[in-house]
């Protein structure tokens, strides 16, 4: 059977992708950001997942105001990096595990989570930056990638509780797939940041750290954080963190935190990263 072995929480700041693509990661500004991922790259090499179920949001790249799916599951054969204005990032095309993706689609709908099914989709920095952070520069992504795009751009985004319960359903779907696969679930976005108006530049390290603590130790309480708290404490774009609850919901209740990294700033965002492993039973 397929198994969810671990979860990865990770910011997906676009400037991180630019820093990697332009080979300036050892500059003093960027060095501490990437230092925190050295252990993560060792970890993922050891775990060597077959599939990454990657929860991210599209930033008006594949979708625009003409179509706003709350949850869009990628079942296409592959997902090319999108041109976000400066040409597509020079990173590999993400190849899907279509059988598992189709199984998850069927399982979720029958489990009463109605997905938008994406038979074609390009993917932006929301998906490619976390893969780059975890794998570095590679010719091919070492794992198959199943993308789940969550709307956190047009209000209202889904609640943390909805995302948490969806994560549980994703976990059930994966665990009922009849092929021996190791799956790691990524939840991406955040941490605290606001890109516009009077509070632009807002960063709240205390709140971010509390969020990471809660995510590990009391995921139900974390999933109950209301939108207004994200807005007030983590800024208007901090609400991206609802996507981390999908990852957490897919894991067991008790997990082992094997790595954490937090750094301010990258661009105008706090970078947060956590690795949680299911405790083997
Ligand atoms: Fe984002």
Commentary on this structure:
- The chain has helices at residues 14-21, 31-35, 38-47, 98-110, 125-135, 160-175, 205-217, 219-223, 227-234, 244-250, and strands at residues 3-10, 51-56, 71-74, 78-79, 94-95, 116-118, 144-150, 182-188, 255-266, 269-278.
- The strands form 2 sheets. It has an 8-stranded mixed beta sheet with strand order 6-3-7-2-8-1-10-9, with helices on both faces.
- The radius of gyration is 17 Å and the shape is globular.
- It has 281 residues and is of the alpha/beta class.
- The protein is built from 10 helices and 10 strands.
- The two termini are 15 Å apart.
- Helices cover 34% and strands 22% of the residues.
- The model has no long low-confidence stretch (mean pLDDT 97).
- Strand 9 (255-266) and strand 10 form a beta hairpin.
- Fe (ii) ion binds next to loops.
- Residues 12, 57, 59, 126, 189, 240 line the site of fe (ii) ion.
Low-confidence residue ranges: none
The percentage of residues in β strands lies in: 15-25%
Bound molecules: fe (ii) ion
What helical percentage do the residues reach?
A: 25-40%
Structural class by SSE content = alpha/beta
Distance N terminus to C terminus? 15 Å
SSE inventory with pairings:
Elements: E1 3-10, H1 14-21, H2 31-35, H3 38-47, E2 51-56, E3 71-74, E4 78-79, E5 94-95, H4 98-110, E6 116-118, H5 125-135, E7 144-150, H6 160-175, E8 182-188, H7 205-217, H8 219-223, H9 227-234, H10 244-250, E9 255-266, E10 269-278
Parallel strand pairs: 1-8, 2-7, 2-8, 3-6
Antiparallel strand pairs: 1-10, 3-7, 4-5, 9-10
Fe (ii) ion is lined by residues 12, 57, 59, 126, 189, 240.
